[in-house]
Amino acid sequence: MKVAEVLEHWNQEDSPPSIRTLYHLSGLFFQDLERFKEAWAGLSRERQRRMAEGLVEIGETSFEVDFHDIFRFLLSDQDPEVRASAVEGLFEDETPWLLHNLINLLRQDPSPEVRSRAAIALGRFSRLAEMEDLDPELSQKLRETLRETIHNPQENLEVRRRAVEAIAYFGDQEVREIITQTYQDPAQKMRVSALFAMGRSLDAYWNKTLIAELENKDPELRYEAAHACGELELKSAVPALAPLLQDADREVQESVVWALGQIGGGEARRLLATAAASEDQYLAEAAAEALSQLEFASGILEVPASDEEE
Fold first, then answer.
1. Which residues 6+ apart lie within 8 Å of 46 measured at CB?
2. In degrees rounded to 5, what are phi and psi of residue 264?
3. Could you give the CA distance from residue 81 to residue 62 in angstroms, rounded to a whole number?
4. Are 142 and 168 a contacting pair, CB within 8 Å?
5. How far is CA 27 from CA 6, 33, 307, in A?
6. Of 87, 116, 196, 268, which residue is 20 to 30 A from 109 by alpha carbon distance?
7. Whether pTM exceeds 0.85
8. Which pLDDT value is given to residue 308?
9. Distance between CA 221 and CA 183 in Å, rounded?
10. d(C-alpha 6, C-alpha 33), whole Å
11. What pLDDT, on the 0 to 100 scale, is given for residue 265?
């Protein structure tokens, strides 16, 4: 199927479009990309949004497709839902070009949803900056933008909390103060992001706080606390994580299993082995997977005979 046929199919408003046809838009050469851009304006707003969402869905499940140039084009679309999808679709892009554009979106886009998506995406650039894999000037500009967003009282709460999560990778004293302020915020969602940021910061300063939050009545807070314990590979949290394997909330259970797999050690391995033998099939499968990954990471898996002979 050619690009023109795909676009014609999507332009037929009397029939539902097939997401599978979008595979043919992968890796467009210049002329086909230009045809796509020309035809894009002719699609209805609803079809544009569905196509953008469909491209994201395919890109997240298939490593063989390449919609990179399309998403770059859609990043400046007039519709905020399309721009938000474009940000999400560029999840593997770590170029300075995208960094500049994400910063501009966070600072200037009129849509809170787009600014929120931009803040989330900037998190991976913060990680690059902390690893010293980002130009120092760009790193400083990124940090200043996130800081301005966090301290802007007029900014949407969702955008500010995502900026806190994004800046957490820097993990220094200023970030510790930002996380402290966020943790003390009366808004529950801000506290959720604070716990998430604690884990991302890899700052042992938060160890006691995270262990204490494992007993929080709010399952979302327990979930983030458990996940952060895993990020920090916090062995002292294992006794507090153990009872949460029986938590009434499935997502909390999942987070605890993941955390134990990250923490490792004899007790964590024993807990996972017990959970893997549980009659609860959901818990058993999750624990078995975590145990398998833990053993692989620890080098416990048997070395293949062919490797031994070499």
1. none
2. 70, -170
3. 22
4. no
5. 14, 9, 38
6. 196
7. yes
8. 40
9. 11
10. 13
11. 94
Q: Is residue 187 part of a domain?
A: no
- Asked whether 170 and 143 are in contact (CB, 8 A), the reply is yes
User: For residue 173, which amino acid is it?
Assistant: Q
Calculate ∠ Cα 8-77-98, nearest 5°. Answer: 115
Q: Which domain holds residue 282?
A: 203-310
CA distance 158 to 234: 28
Here the CATH number for the domain that contains residue 245 is 1.25.10.10
> What domain count does the chain have?
1
Question: Furthest-apart CA pair in the chain: how many Å?
Answer: 66
What 86-92 contacts at long range (C-beta under 8 Å, 24+ apart), as own/partner pairs, is: 86/52, 87/114, 87/117, 87/118, 87/121, 88/56, 88/117, 88/121, 89/52, 89/55, 89/56, 89/59, 90/121, 91/59, 91/60, 91/121
In a domain? residue 42: no
Encode pLDDT of 163-179 as tens digits: 999 999 999 999 999 99
Residue 270 is encoded by which pair of tokens? Answer: 């024993």
Please list the ranges in the chain whose pLDDT falls under 70: 1, 300-310
Instruction: Please give the Cα distance from 276 to 274 (Å, whole number).
Output: 5
Asked if residue 3 is part of any domain, the answer here is no
Residue 243 has a pLDDT of 97
